Please model this.
Amino acid sequence: MRRKASIILTIFIIFLYVGLFVITTTSLHSISSTLLGSLTSIEEIEYVSTEQNSTGTFRLTAQIPARNSGILDVNVRMSVRFYSDNGTIIAEDTDSKRIEPGEIEEFTIAVTFIPENVYSVDIYLECRSFFGMIGLSFSTYLEDFPTSEE
Model:
């Protein structure tokens, strides 16, 4: 009886491991294809910048396409933060969407700031799948951000 229970438990654990492996690889495939699809479409980013001469502020609006080439839904979040030289957040915007397999969604990021006050920029991209339990993120922090006067 003990031997039979041991065999059943072993088979159950093997099926559990195989199931977890399939779920993880499927989720990572969907996430990585979405990340690669978003990062390789950098030339497709459309942006509009306007300067208001009376106040010296600058308005930047970017539309960023993201495509899900995987087989699972992916939740994508993009954010941008502009910092002053003392670390204070000057401007920030975040957009998040759920992208179905084979779909293309467009993210809109719009920020208003004074270029002379910008010292650094933080750009963040996160993709999550399988009920938000599996995810990857990409972040870059740019210091000494060039202003229009340089």
